[in-house]
Write a structure and sequence with these properties.
Layout: E1 2-6, E2 13-17, E3 23-25, H1 35-39, H2 42-53, E4 59-60, E5 76-80, H3 84-89, E6 99-103, E7 108-109, E8 126-134, E9 150-159, E10 164-167, E11 170-171
Parallel strand pairs: 7-10
Antiparallel strand pairs: 1-2, 1-11, 2-3, 3-4, 5-6, 8-9, 9-10
Length: about 170
């Protein structure tokens, strides 16, 4: 199941991307893909809705803008220097412990939206990263059970200016 959100910026509605590439309007499901959705078993409920009602839900034209596949997450936690080759090309030491930092949730845009680069920026760098969406509430999860809490993954582009562009639909 692949999650999408579509419509004008700030007014996106939830949807699904079908196996056939069709965009399905999931607003009839009744919940957007936010923290409460993921924390309250929303993925399982959406899966049931899609099996029962998804076939008769309205379709969304391919010309309609896609937004970020999740609605304003509570936080974006990033792990810096997590790729050896990038650390080496940056001439930085591989950290002994993870370098953790946060991105503003307002930095998320859709896959084809413009990234806002600060005025007078002299150095803007970008990276392609793996984003992991936590699919249910988790606290002190054992390593062996960690993947049970993953709601989906996505490839994103991150600039040092702070913008984050989701590439395609989120998967669940």
């Amino acid at each position: 199941m692949k999650l999408i959100r579509f419509g004008d910026a700030g007014k996106e509605k939830p949807g699904l991307l079908g196996k056939d590439g069709a965009r399905v309007d999931a607003s009839g499901f009744g919940a957007d893909y936010d923290e409460a959705f993921f924390g309250g078993g929303g993925l399982a409920e959406l899966r049931r809705w899609a099996e029962k009602d998804g076939g008769s839900a309205p379709r969304v034209a391919a010309s309609v803008r896609l937004g970020p596949p999740v609605c304003r997450p509570s936080k974006i936690v990033c792990i810096g220097l997590n790729y050896r080759d990038h650390a080496a090309e940056s001439k930085m030491e591989i950290p002994k412990e993870p370098v953790i930092f946060f991105k503003a949730t307002t930095s998320l845009v859709g896959p084809n939206d413009a990234l806002v680069i600060p005025r007078k920026a002299t150095k803007v760098d970008w990276e392609v990263e793996l984003a992991v969406v936590i699919g249910k509430k988790a606290l002190y999860v054992e390593k062996e059970k960690a993947l049970d809490y993953v709601g989906g993954t996505r490839c994103i582009t991150i600039t040092r200016s702070g913008a984050s562009s989701w590439s395609g639909a989120g998967s669940g």
